[in-house]
Amino acid sequence: MMNKFCSICGAKTDTSIPEGDNRKRAVCRNCGTIHYENPKLVVGCIVEQDEHVLLCRRSINPQIGKWTLPAGYLENNESAAEGAIRETFEESGAQVELCGPYRLFDLPTISQFYLLFRAKLVSCPFLPTSESSEVQLFRWADIPWEQIAFKVITTTLRHHMNDAANGRNFEFTNHIIHL
Ligand SMILES: [Zn+2]
Fold first, then answer.
1. Residue 70: phi, psi to the nearest 5?
2. Residues 20 and 45 both lie in one domain
3. Distance between Cα 28 and ligand 1 center (Å)
4. Could you tell me the distance, in angstroms and rounded to a whole number, from the CA of residue 38 to the centre of ligand 1?
5. pLDDT in tens, 166-177
6. Ligand 1 centre distance from Cα of residue 37 (Å)
7. How far, in Å, from the CA of 178 to the mean position of ligand 1?
8. Contact, 129 vs 41, CB < 8 A?
9. pLDDT by residue (tens digit) across 37-82?
């Protein structure tokens, strides 16, 4: 979805390919500013605690009522690690320490990518927040697989469960998902 109005002067934009470029951009009719739009990065955590993982039940759309790992858009002037810790706190109230990056998902069809870290709790309690109606530690056997909000989250949980079951090292890997 291209910008309809210029963020600099407020005039309407046209969609065109600027000289020397090869993609359509929103270009201001008045001041000529070219509005580049680039993929968004979602950062989050798989929080581990004694064979359990922390899930949040979404109280906002999309996918309201479903469970997810705490994750959200990275802010400007923030490192990916800082963003993952902040999002985890905002969605679950949990304070975490990162163990390392775990999964990177390219989602080119929706111009997003997800970077999920492994993390451990440094302080309980976690609690419902404005974004989560429930926050809970789940054992692998109790994960509500049919009620997980997003494919990347289901995939991350399955990979993590398999790594844990097979005594593997939780190696960082990258995957492409076409939605
Ligand atoms: Zn303008």
1. -65, 125
2. no
3. 5
4. 19
5. 988 899 999 999
6. 16
7. 35
8. no
9. 999 999 999 999 988 999 999 999 999 999 999 999 999 999 999 9
| pLDDT for the residue numbered 100 | 96
Q: Which domain holds residue 148?
A: 40-176
List, for residues 9-42, the tens digit of each pLDDT value: 999 999 999 999 999 999 999 999 999 999 999 9
C-alpha–C-alpha distance, residues 87 and 71, integer Å: 6
CA of 164 to the centre of ligand 1 (A): 53
Domain count, the chain: 2
Same domain, 9 and 80: no
**Same domain for 13 and 65?**
no
Query: How many residues are listed for the chain in this entry?
Result: 179
Quote the ligand 1 centre to 137 CA distance (angstroms): 49
Q: Could you tell me which residues come within 8 angstroms of residue 130 by beta carbon, excluding any fewer than 6 positions away?
A: 59
